[in-house]
From TrEMBL, chains A, B:
Alphabetized PANTHER family for the sequence: ALPHA-METHYLACYL-COA RACEMASE, SUCCINYL-COA--D-CITRAMALATE COA-TRANSFERASE
GO molecular function: catalytic activity
Organism of origin: Pseudonocardia asaccharolytica DSM 44247 = NBRC 16224
Highest taxon listed in the record's lineage: Bacteria
Protein known as: Dehydratase
């Protein structure tokens, strides 16, 4: 079958970014088919050497978050360099004029400066707080409340989650803002000025999931429930041979299947009658979660992982073993096949890193490729992209010699 | 200033969903201006009574994730009911024909069935795994590896994060898929079939952030670092009066400001010289994080929170106190003003819940409203939406009497 063009084919985005949110937003647009040009200062932005690093010193983090982009390297302190970035934004055809940035304090990159040169500009500014004060994922997370409900029951101290979830959501919201504004520009011809604050992304999630309303309406201070699911029945269990399994029973059918698999139908039935409760309801399962988990853990602790898998496979129950990241990708791991065979995954050969498994877009689009494309080397597309603005070879050579631009060879 | 229309004005989306991912995807499109019609079976989907609940039994979770949508209630088991949902999708004008669903096992809702009636259909199916096998946030999280690196240092057991981060990202990716496909349909006239698997969303994040490459290339099994930031310097500290502060020093300037604020310039300078290291680099700050945190914690433990705030305010340093959700919204809390005054937040009056603070879209769009709109009551728009398909009052009454549709009054 002939491959179809990706949905955003033709769109051009200029990204001036660092860390996770803006780079992920831009990468997602690139994976959807846009031409995304990440413009960095010479030597790279503050994320260019961020951990984890490959043995060569190349950042695995940077390589992961900039896949499929073009890289242009320009001296941001030089008037000429800034003018080149401005031209990249403004001279980019009807599907261009789109800027995604988390840079702060660079007036020449702001909406007000760029819209002078391109009235239909689409501009997304990612920031910490809506008033422009700085914040990062870790401070926003502390401020909103999730570390106070995460972690083992009875643990007194805040437990930060390691996943930069707010950065991820913020990057995806920024991409949504751009696609919304692009649609509106096609209809009305008007551009758009937008901003996304990391703090707002986290606060919105706390509100959307009912955490804020529970505190305000019910006057509840939510506590830690460890690995239990609030308001339902889910928990991790240890098998006889030390395996660890997460088990989730959301529906009546899940619960019924779990009792059959663990041979607890009669015991739980007797318990329900004597307590006058109904464990087919989520409310009662949550209320008596420790009793139920106590019964279930006896079954898990006398059953080997392989037998647990046999008993649970084919039931409606939602369950998974726990894996380390290493178990997903190391050659001899039984979990590797599932990852390597995933149609979203592919092998990229990244300079300074080598060949490794990398993800494409987690949206499967019928007929279109999901193959991951390696990240550029810093400055790899400086000449080709600036050449596209009409700069001659002699002009580029002059800019190079004066240090205004840099390619990847230097 | 006259308010501008929102970017997705005119777009019509039919959502058949439950839980977090699909409802959040649909709500985000609604917040961007689309008309989103959530169609539920009579009595509601499995998320309709999900915790947390208001004292009335109304789900704060459902109310939070369905703001600004229309609600239609139809008997999914009846041929007539299914035909009405099909018409809602197919007879919805040039900007309609868009379906977002995480329903499984409903053939009549799948792409193949609906495209027969609308060739330019845009259809996103949210699923657990790419092969259609089920999974939820909690099982995907266990499978990918984050619980093995989250939680206190030295803790042996997996620590699940409480935030359903994969659901959130999955919902946002599904909305991005729809906007990408909508753009392509405007250009080519063709529709699109898409799917987003929750597992893929989590696996992509692990890859994008470098966790998979670190395991594969460096053969590292990442361990827990508690609330330390991997590869940099960040940690939480306790103040003399029991306050808790998250402190992040990403750049040289952050670090320098932190040392000045905590009166540690000379001590750290002597330490650097004697150890032959350079704490202005992130690598060395991470390597010696426990030594540095030990010095810093002495300052925090002898300083009251109010004085910590004074010392850190005005510096470049990234920091925040920890809050509970309750501290963000209760009347007498010093943190409430910051939330209540946030331009993203508004007060909604939700039936069964009452007036409470709720978030709008975390993307600020110049000139457009961000005011949150309350969630519908189940079936609130059954008559008005189906009336829009041309059904007469008599036809609607007949469907009601035979139990094919239901409004919110019944």
């Amino acid at each position: 079958m002939l491959e179809q063009p990706l949905p955003l084919a033709g769109m051009r985005v200029v990204e001036v970014s660092s860390f996770v949110a803006a780079p992920l937003g831009g990468m997602t647009l690139a994976q959807l088919g846009a031409e995304v040009i990440r413009v960095d200062p010479i030597g790279g932005a503050p994320d260019h050497r961020r951990w984890p690093l490959a043995p060569s010193g190349t950042s695995l983090y940077w390589a992961g978050l900039n896949k499929g982009k073009k890289s242009v390297s320009v001296d941001f302190r030089s008037t000429e360099g800034r003018a080149l970035v401005t031209r990249l934004v403004t001279d980019s055809g009807p599907d261009g004029g789109i800027v995604l940035t988390n840079a702060v304090g660079r007036r020449w990159l702001e909406y007000d400066a760029l819209v002078e040169h391109r009235p239909d500009l689409i501009h997304v500014q990612i920031e910490g707080h809506y008033d422009g004060t700085p914040a990062v994922d870790y401070t926003v997370n502390a401020a909103i409340g999730f570390p106070m409900v995460t972690g083992p029951e009875g643990h007194a101290d805040p437990v930060n989650h390691v996943l930069p979830a707010w950065d991820i959501a913020c990057g995806l919201y920024s991409a949504l803002g751009i696609l919304g504004a692009d649609r509106q520009r096609r209809v009305t011809g008007r551009g758009q000025r937008m901003s996304v604050a990391l703090y707002d992304v986290a606060l919105a999630a706390a509100g959307n999931l009912g955490f804020l309303a529970e505190a305000q309406i019910n006057r509840v201070v939510r506590r830690r429930y460890g690995n239990y699911l609030y308001g339902g029945f889910a928990r991790d269990f240890t098998t006889r041979d030390g395996g660890r399994v997460m088990v989730v029973a959301l529906t009546k059918r899940h619960w019924a299947d779990l009792l059959v698999a663990t041979d607890l139908v009669d015991v739980v039935d007797a318990l329900e009658k004597s307590l006058g409760v109904d464990f087919s309801t989520e409310d009662d399962r949550f209320e008596y979660r420790e009793v139920l988990a106590g019964l279930l853990s006896r079954w898990f602790s006398r059953t080997d992982l392989v037998d647990v898998k046999t008993a649970l496979t084919g039931t409606s129950l939602l369950w998974s073993t726990y894996n380390t990241f290493a178990e997903l990708v190391t050659e001899d791991s039984p979990s590797r096949a599932m990852v390597a065979e995933n149609p979203m995954m592919g092998v990229v050969d990244q300079p300074g890193v080598g060949r490794h498994l990398a993800p494409g877009l987690p949206v499967a689009i019928e007929g279109a490729t999901r193959e991951p494309v390696r990240a550029p080397v810093l400055g790899e597309h400086t000449d080709s992209v600036l050449g596209g603005l009409g700069l001659s070879t002699a002009e580029l050579a002059d800019l190079h010699s004066r240090g205004v631009i840099r390619g990847n060879a230097q």
